[in-house]
Amino acid sequence: MAGTAPASADGPAARAETVSVAATVEEQRLDRAAPQEILRRSGFDSVAGGFARALRSADSYAEARRVVDRRGSALWRRAVDRAQVRGPAHGDLSRDDDRPLYWARLGMIRELRVWEPGFALSSEARDRLLGELERSSRGQDSMDFPGAGKAVGGKGFKRVVLTGFDPFTLDRDIRISNPSGAAALALDGTWLHTADGGLARIETAVFPVRWTDFAAGTVERTLRQRLPEADLFTTVSQGRAGRFDIERTNGAWRGGFPDNENVSRTGTVPVAGSVAQPQWTSTTLPYAAVVAAETGRFPVYDNTSVTEIPTGSTDPVVRPDGPTSGSTARAGGGGNYLSNEIAYRATLLRDRLGLHDTLPGGHVHTPVLEFGAGNTDPATGAVTDPGFVRNRLDIIAQVRAIVAVAARR
């Protein structure tokens, strides 16, 4: 009944369970030299320890939830403030760096996962706390536009939703940063003048590079309430070297490339709902205007290519000009990894909400963020260098410029 705490949380019927302390694949990377240097040189090395101390003081499930929410939200705000040059830097690492957020969050998750409270806590209750920590520390539950109306200081403004990703392919190079995540931090809560002189407000969030989270609906849960109030949305991820791509078409296929937990998934993108699932969804971003505009030093392409199995065939073929009628998806313009999947899920959600004809939205692939000359060997290279920082700053600035063009009236 209302007002009664669930037995699986901290009530007298709650069941204590043995905590497994085996590190996850992501956590196994945390104590390596590069992540620890990144945390130390950003001042984020004390985040996990402070969180652990706060958890130890929690004497109930309700108090633990408050600790998780406060500390998770504080980590997101701290990362955003650092990227937007508010407050002290606490270290010599470039302020535009997204990696401190990723590694500090992972440290907090590890502390929560192995925490042994003084009250009974079921595995289900712990999972709820972990979920809340993930959402709050990624900005997923704080994408709130100001005001009930669409005016600030007497002027109307556009509302822009933008998402980024964690670093990935960390077993190839533990030093990797993701410019889409860096862009999300740099742009969250900011205002910009659109290409036609209007005003736009940007709200952002970052997503994990994990197949399981996507199957569990993290994209839809985050965006379902945001898209109806938005005037533009763009999912952003790292793509090809030396270029931006506006991905014209997204496919309903998972290609199986390992995620950050080294998990592979191959098959149709799993989405909830009884409505028939399309093989393809399309961008409604103003791609022609974006491609034609001067937005930065990297070229921007309207990418129309897909890989499909044509009707009546069993063999996949590349179609440079998009899918043919009745074909089965094997890769969208953005491939068949989680960047394609977030684009597919977000645009499918747009369509299911009846917003296809009124809400511009789709996917932007950034260039690969490259280290500077002489710093390309992961075994011997430094965690940062001037060329690396310059490349990331240029990509962030061009993402902002692309949004400014796309958000024009």
Automatic annotation (TrEMBL):
The record's annotation in InterPro entries points to: Peptidase_C15-like_sf
List the biased-composition ranges (Polar residues). 304-314
Q: What SUPFAM superfamilies does the database record attribute to this sequence?
A: Pyrrolidone carboxyl peptidase (pyroglutamate aminopeptidase)
Q: What ranges does the record give for the region Disordered, renumbered to this chain?
A: 304-333
Protein name listed in UniProt: Pyroglutamyl peptidase
Record organism: Streptomyces marianii
